[in-house]
User: Which sequence fits this backbone?
């Protein structure tokens, strides 16, 4: 293949990564923005979404699209419920103290990982894509399913943005984010908002995982990479900024795709992680964010 | 302030702990003898962590890189360049110093949550680097240091670090050195400034202390202690692998220190020992050790924030350092 088709392929792969990454990072960013806590177990909610998708698709017989549709609905709901319960049982009791929350979510990470290992096992298992269409480009054929991931992610991002900016629920969330105490004084049930936001963040990660699992197998250790990448995206994009998150996901996903195609993937990760650590050190508000109080 | 009698009591307690550890060398059965040697080295790692987390209040999620810097700083020259044990140990400490200084200079520009994430990212870069140079480090598979390389020739005699008794006593010596170093630091002026930074950094700065310089010193000393533990681990147990640089080894010292009691000199030993045996015993009937670690972290943070020694100190033994 010549250089240009190679680059196009790398860009397309990068866009698929970006699409999934944007959803996952948006979940992390929402939780950080509204609750001011860092959820280290976020990657495990992603993993749980993928593992549940495998379990649901194997339980449903018939056309793969049927099982996939069931997984796309049920898996995020189950993950959201688990997140909600852990928020109510653990995070609420440590009163969202930043350090205690990090330690508690690390504990959660280990528990979820171990349960997945015990009940799902150490194997990586594939999930059949809902449809197999190849779109023939002049130079190579490309999976139609992968393109549909990009579209689905764009729709979900748009929907989240509409909910946040145009609905009463979004208003309540933004009010809680802006000033927790004043929101409470105005009768907003802050505790319930926190529980819901934590569940919503986990659900976004789970949806991203269900979308990606037909091309990337489900495995109990798959949560670490999305966690680190989401951190990277959220930091570059500026914490709690939806637009920044999307732009940063595009930047990271596409450059990761291109660098991994032409250089070693490990080197790509080293460079990306180092660059982001430096951004955090020298420009803590992110590249697109503005300095906060 | 502590009086004369109290200082004597504190030193007597620490000397007694070391004496007990030396005495255990002669009575412990073989299996537990080996376990304790390993626990002592890991406890030194935890003590290095505790200096930063307990006394300065800086929660790092990247201390595996300091341990691994010592591990590789000692293991790589010994394996590839044929260095002796003593220069290799010095190499490990040197590597720890360089890494800690660089990370400290950069990461201390941030605070709070950003500090945790930055340290975690630097540690991840370190871990990936050990994988990337797999030609020399052999990545996860790791290097096994040969027995004949792990000997010190002293005049006519040789000190064989693979011998269980020598290994145990070397571990005790390292532990004693780290313990008294920690004790000296926390009782010094510098140590008191560190606690003041933990309690209220703004006010400490207003009183005229250079908080950045004090924190940087603490990061470097903490890094050196952890690197010493890593170098000793490589030399005593003869294995150098990337696993020790992974995020798991950044979280374990946090768990050990929280369990034993943050900001207590002996807490790290108690936490490490307790946790090692909890995992050892539970692994007898379940392989789900991560479940134990996770549940312990959550339970500690919910109901036992001060740890074992921290609680003892609060209730009965106010003089514990």
Assistant:
């Amino acid at each position: 293949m010549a250089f240009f088709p190679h680059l196009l392929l790398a860009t397309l792969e990068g866009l698929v990564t970006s699409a999934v990454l944007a959803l996952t990072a948006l979940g992390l960013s929402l939780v950080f923005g509204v609750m001011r806590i860092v959820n280290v177990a976020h990657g495990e909610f992603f993993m749980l979404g993928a593992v549940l998708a495998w379990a649901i698709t194997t339980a449903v017989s018939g056309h793969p699209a049927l099982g996939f549709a069931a997984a796309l609905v049920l898996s995020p709901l189950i993950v959201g419920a688990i997140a909600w319960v852990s928020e109510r049982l653990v995070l609420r009791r440590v009163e969202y103290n930043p350090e205690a929350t990090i330690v508690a979510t690390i504990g959660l990470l280990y528990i979820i990982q171990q349960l997945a290992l015990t009940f799902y096992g150490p194997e990586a298992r594939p999930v059949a894509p809902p449809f197999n269409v190849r779109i023939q480009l002049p130079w190579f054929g490309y999976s139609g399913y992968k393109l549909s991931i990009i579209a689905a992610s764009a729709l979900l991002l748009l929907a989240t943005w509409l909910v946040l900016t145009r609905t009463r629920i979004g208003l309540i969330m933004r009010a809680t984010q802006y000033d927790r105490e004043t929101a409470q004084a105005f009768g907003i049930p802050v505790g319930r908002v926190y529980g819901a936001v934590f569940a919503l963040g986990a659900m976004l990660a789970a949806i991203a995982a269900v979308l990606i699992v037909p091309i990337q197998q489900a495995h109990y250790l798959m949560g670490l990479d999305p966690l680190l990448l989401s951190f990277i995206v959220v930091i570059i994009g500026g914490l709690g900024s939806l637009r920044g998150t999307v732009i940063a996901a595009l930047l990271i996903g596409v450059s990761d795709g291109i660098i991994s195609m032409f250089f070693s993937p490990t080197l790509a990760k080293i460079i990306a992680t180092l660059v982001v650590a430096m951004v955090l050190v020298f420009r803590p508000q992110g590249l697109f964010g503005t300095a906060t109080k | 302030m502590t009086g004369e009698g109290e200082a004597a009591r504190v030193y007597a307690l620490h000397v007694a702990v070391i004496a007990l550890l030396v005495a255990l060398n002669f009575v412990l059965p073989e299996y537990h003898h080996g376990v304790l040697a390993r626990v002592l080295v890991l406890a030194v790692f935890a003590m290095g962590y505790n200096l930063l987390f307990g006394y300065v209040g800086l929660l790092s999620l990247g201390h595996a890189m300091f341990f691994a810097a010592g591990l590789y700083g000692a293991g790589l020259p010994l394996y590839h360049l044929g260095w002796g044990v003593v220069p290799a140990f010095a190499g490990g400490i040197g590597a720890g110093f360089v890494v800690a200084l660089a990370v400290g200079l950069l990461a201390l520009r941030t605070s709070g949550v950003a500090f945790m994430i930055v340290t975690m990212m630097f540690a991840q870069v370190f871990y990936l680097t050990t994988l990337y140079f797999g030609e020399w480090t052999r990545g996860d598979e790791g290097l096994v240091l040969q027995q004949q390389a792990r000997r010190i020739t002293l005049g006519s005699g040789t000190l064989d670090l693979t011998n269980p008794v020598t290994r145990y006593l070397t571990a005790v010596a390292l532990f004693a050195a780290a313990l008294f170093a920690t004790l000296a630091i926390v009782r010094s002026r510098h140590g008191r400034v560190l606690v003041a930074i933990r309690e209220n950094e703004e006010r400490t700065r207003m009183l005229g202390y250079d908080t950045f310089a004090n924190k940087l010193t603490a990061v470097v000393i903490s890094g050196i202690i952890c690197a010493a533990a890593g170098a000793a681990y490589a030399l005593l147990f003869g294995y150098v692998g990337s696993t020790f640089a992974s995020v798991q080894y950044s979280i374990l010292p946090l768990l050990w220190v929280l369990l034993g009691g943050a900001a207590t000199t002996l807490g790290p030993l108690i936490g490490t020992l307790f946790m090692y045996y909890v995992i050892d015993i539970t692994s007898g009937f379940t392989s789900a050790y991560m479940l134990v670690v996770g549940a312990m972290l959550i339970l500690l943070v919910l109901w036992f924030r001060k740890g074992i020694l921290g609680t003892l100190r609060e209730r009965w033994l106010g003089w514990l350092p």
Summary: The two ends of chain B are 12 Å apart (CA to CA). The mean pLDDT of chain B is 88. Chain B has 14 helices and four strands.
